[in-house]
Amino acid sequence: MSINYKGFEACEGGVCAAKGFKASGIHCGIRKNKDKKDLALIYSEKICSAAAVYTQNKVKGAPLIVTKRNLENGKAQAVICNSGNANTCNADGEQKAITMCKLTASALGIKASDVVVASTGVIGQILPIEPIADNMNKLAKALCENGNLDAAEAIMTTDTVKKEFAVEFKLGDTVCKLGGMAKGSGMIHPNMATMLCFLTTDVDISDKLLAKALKAVVDDTFNMVSVDGDTSTNDNCVILASGLSGNKHISEPDSEDYKTFVNALYVVLMNLSRMIAADGEGATKLLECVVTGACDVKNAKTVAKSVITSSLFKCAMFGKDANWGRILCAIGYSEAKLNINGVEVILSSKAGSVQVCKDGFGVEFSEEKALKILSEDEIKIIVNLSDGDAKAVAWGCDLTYDYVKINGDYRT
Amino acid sequence: MSINYKGFEACEGGVCAAKGFKASGIHCGIRKNKDKKDLALIYSEKICSAAAVYTQNKVKGAPLIVTKRNLENGKAQAVICNSGNANTCNADGEQKAITMCKLTASALGIKASDVVVASTGVIGQILPIEPIADNMNKLAKALCENGNLDAAEAIMTTDTVKKEFAVEFKLGDTVCKLGGMAKGSGMIHPNMATMLCFLTTDVDISDKLLAKALKAVVDDTFNMVSVDGDTSTNDNCVILASGLSGNKHISEPDSEDYKTFVNALYVVLMNLSRMIAADGEGATKLLECVVTGACDVKNAKTVAKSVITSSLFKCAMFGKDANWGRILCAIGYSEAKLNINGVEVILSSKAGSVQVCKDGFGVEFSEEKALKILSEDEIKIIVNLSDGDAKAVAWGCDLTYDYVKINGDYRT
């Protein structure tokens, strides 16, 4: 699934790839299942520049409110995150989130206001603080330079795979790293940061530019992912930059180094986005909608998101059916400006490509070939609007029996 | 499911309830299954005032383009509609729709420009005109005053039940009737007319006021229904008014008679809306979200639609799970203006009511009682925003294995 761009080598280590970062993940007892880790910690030996983007949902998890306050000065040194409980819509939520920061700070010998706090899980159930308090020292002691996988596991909810990605690249002659971990996989829909993602880098960069880069890249990656159209209350994406790589401090948005950093961030977030879409609740297929020939990027994004979000289209992909009328339908009800008589649609995968629609009308194609193409587990839907040069990509997944099972039938 | 309002008595007859209307429905051969009717006709002995609303999808079915043109003069005398093929995204679509009007006109001895034409079914497959041409005289001959159920059956696609409703009411001392038939059940989402609906009445009313009434009532009924978030390319809602009841001609929007007519229209469309939602593809439950205490109607509608559209919430209802966090989540990501700390949520059905959230936070409730309430097949979700006096209702259904089966797994 990983895509390498020239000059950006995928590397091991996730959130521990960059210099100065350690991580850990343990079972503390928020979840009943003892085999399921439920508490993650990331720690930087040096205070970091930090930036974040938050859900646009008007119902915001209590941890987000506390994190936003702690990041006002653009600095952070640790991330604490539990799974199994979202600590949202609870009257005591904010107080509990503050307590989580204090416990973390005390165990690490840092300031509580330098801690990023996050929670993910069920909404509206009181968060038990005891398991966290009782196990904080154990969690801090477990910190190590290859604790990235433990941490990535501890933030999972209905995810079926751990999601991490890291790249190595050069700024001038200095080797730098940027890595991250993320969790999906339901309540995912484009609208700012739509899941939890924690990123670390050893690049030396101003917190202002760090925030600018994060916002720009999230708009093109996480905000282009949809699993089910539901924008969660708790999701956010945080980046910590330790500056330990020794590169020349980045403070100019026009500099080559800044552009390189943005590209590195894009490679990491694009790969994590694809992992989240592919591991969408119940998904059997990763869907990638590439819109070309749009009059501007906004319209391209609108069309790509509309296709990837259509329940009918998602069901057709599950059924391996080249029912392209549903793609046209989703293009048509999007808010994009477009001339439907210019629309071309191509379905593509490892098994080949087939044009199914041209000039807004159906064309003859081999159903047999289409079935072969759609039997692969990564499907690309290419929509050419014949209306300009702008382009966008969105990622999603098919809608399956298991999505319904996971979200509706979990009582049985 | 029917709700009677004082002065509006539900009555038999569907599109044949009003004076002067006949209908028929036959199998002509567009569908392979000979047991499935696929061609419907409605005929008025007198030329009617007529009005329509159309899908907002930029991909519009060819029949809609022809119907819009034919209704420019506000007059119509017949409706021809096939199922099994949407006649959309085909290069010859418009020509075929014109031919359908000509064939109908010739069989009935009326003008082709007085025919409303509609098609529903798969998008992007060439419509075979021969079955329609060969059977038009048979269809016209079958017209009768109790052909309403045949017609209602012939426009069904994945619908599992015929949908018709009619009311009797008085304008002054004159008894009038208004009835209609509709088809659902996938590709349904609030955005103007979101499915096919044909209405007939014997009320004497100007075509201008007929259009005004239809637009207003559709906004509060069909546009508040969502099955899957997909707005179809072909859907529209047409009303024919023969004027044969003998009431005093309605031409003033401030008149009592106009208000009574709007109410009659509301009763019919609200009942058809509930039928469409309850028969949503794969649905096991009708969901009705009632939003009260909003600062204005627009915000109330936005919140009601957002709740009813959430895949996660729809799955929870299928699973009979009082997972109210998903309701809060859907309220929060709606575009409505609201103070989340004022939100109260009550779940209700024949089996009782339970408050699950107050002031934006969870409250303790009996899971056992909630399960009993959610085990009914009609669930009401009452959301009080504590922010004003405005109110809105939206209708939807749960998301089930069968939705996926119908739309994804139909090859097997």
Descriptive notes:
The structure is a homodimer of 412-residue chains. In chain A, strands 1, 2, 3, 4, 5, 6, 7, 8 and 10 form a nine-stranded mixed β-sheet that branches. A seven-stranded mixed β-sheet of chain A has the order 9-16-11-15-12-13-14. Chain A is globular, with a radius of gyration of 22 Å. Chain A has 412 residues and is α+β, with helices and mostly antiparallel strands. In chain A, strand 12 and strand 13 (352-358) form a beta hairpin. Chain A has helices at 62-70, 93-108, 130-141, 148-154, 207-220, 256-278, 297-309, 311-318, 325-333, 367-374, 401-408, and strands at 9-10, 21-26, 39-54, 75-83, 115-120, 163-171, 174-183, 196-201, 225-226, 236-241, 286-294, 344-349, 352-358, 361-362, 378-384, 390-397. Chain A is 31% helix and 27% strand. Chain A contains eleven helices and 16 strands. The model of chain A is unreliable at 190-194 (pLDDT under 50). The first copy, chain A, starts with 8 loop residues before the first strand and ends with a helix. At the A-B interface, helix 8, helix 9, strand 14 and helix 11 of A face helix 8, helix 9, strand 14 and helix 11 of B.
